[in-house]
Amino acid sequence: MNATPINVLGYTGNSRQFVVKTLNTDLRMNQNAQYPELDGPNPYEYLLAGFAGCINALGQQVAKEQGIPLRSLQIEITGNLNEAPASRQKPGFSKIEIKLKPAAAVSQEILQKWIAEVQQRSPAYNMLVNNTPVELLLHREYAYV
Asked: In terms of CATH architecture, what is 42-139?
């Protein structure tokens, strides 16, 4: 199977804002959740928003494939973040809860099959559940372009 590369570039200067350039847009976020007075979501909110976006896109696609007339889909994701760095807990989310509220005139059984297919095909879900390897590379300097 061929893997399609997806690339983003993030940078920051002297501000508390972090800018991520994607193919189509620039995203601005707080560098740290400890500064709620700054405009923009923090990185943890972006992670959960991206997860919700993946579920939405795949949910719409699977509904179409299965002939489910999905009028709308509400996705609420709550992540319990381990905030104490000195604690013995692993850093990151200790739990992520996803509530899906599809508006479709079909049975609960059909919706269960739909969500099982979404879960099985979701790259975001797979990445989180199956511990996708991450390679962290350090470069000494970079030139701002």
From this structure: 2-Layer Sandwich (3.30)
